[in-house]
Amino acid sequence: xxxxxxxDKTITVIGGGPxxxxxxxxxxxxxxxxxRLIEKNDIxxxxxxxxxxxxxxxxxxxxxxAETVLRFFDGLGLIxxxxxxxxxxxxxxxxxxxxxxxxxxxxxxxxxxxxxxxxKSIEKTDSGFRITADGNIFYxxxxxxxxGGKAGPQxxxxxxxxxxxxxxxxxxxxxxxxxxxxxxxxxxxxxxxGVRAKGxxxxxxxxxxxxxxxxxxxxxxxxFGSKKNSEQAADREYGEIQFTEDGLSGIxxxxxxxxxxxxxxxxxxxxxxxxEERLNQILTExxxxxxxxxxxxxxxxxxxxxxxxxxxxxxxxxxxxxAASLSRAEIAGAVQLLKGWRIPVTGTKGWxxxxxxxxxxxxxxxxxxxxxxxxxxxxxxAGELLNxxxxxxxYNLQWAWSSGLTAGKSAAAAVENKYATExxxxxxx
Length: 429
What we know:
12 helices
């Protein structure tokens, strides 16, 4: 077993993802001794390469600390552009460019990079910490844990950091996949794979899923009565809704998945720009104008063609039925469905499909000003390992950068102060 005693003023960052690289750069820029970065993957920033569909939505202009992050990347030589809803991307539209400028800075600052090395344990010593990693022992004054969560295990995110945190007495808020597809058991999804529709989606808590599937519409004007009253909208999103072979996807669905609990329902409004009254009027006028047309023709131009054979049975409408014969109750039922189609959700996809982890190390046990542990002085946290998760749009990477920069700067200052204090005490003696 190799024993590597670090030189004076050594800070070790565990995890070479976005927050870990930012933390290591932040430490090294303070000029505090040796900075060591340990990553169990063979390369740094592996998961970063997959973000933003390979484009890397690295922050959002609406974030409180976005300017700090933009200045940080500007200093690394990365040119960025702002797109819709404040999303910031590298001008080259390549996530690899973000990774490369970070690695270039790490090398320029002479950070000791150790890839392909898996940390097994971290222990407190009288003077700092002892890290055991694949047969090697490292000694260090401070540790920054930036190991990520469990989302994306194919990129090396296996939740090791939770074990390390618990070893120092930290609590871990229940973790679950977030920003992920939602799954439903409704059989019609197989025929809707690939369908995209703009609209509003709401996540409803408190409903009983068996009352809100297809049976909720058959032969009714969709009057849900007390079932509506028992539901509570946890969140709503507007955007593109994507249908998969077993459920729903798209950015708005990903955002809703953050609040999913068992038994929830997705309510979709395909016409959010119109009130129920106005849509009723439109359908009534349409029935007169297209009097001799079939139900498929009646809904063509309003909905994706693959949705039509799915909604007709829900409304107990035969395809051959003529628009002129639509009753007021049938039109009202169609309005209710188009403005409030309830889809029972049976769960979400798993860790492999999730973009981020919800839950994590309890923030109450961390000093938000420094990212240092309240329970183990000299231990710092950054990134997805903590109980912080946000919606799509660059917010999660913003947290990774800002928490990493803060942890690095704080750890460097604390170690400098530690050695200065020890020096003063030695002189006094």
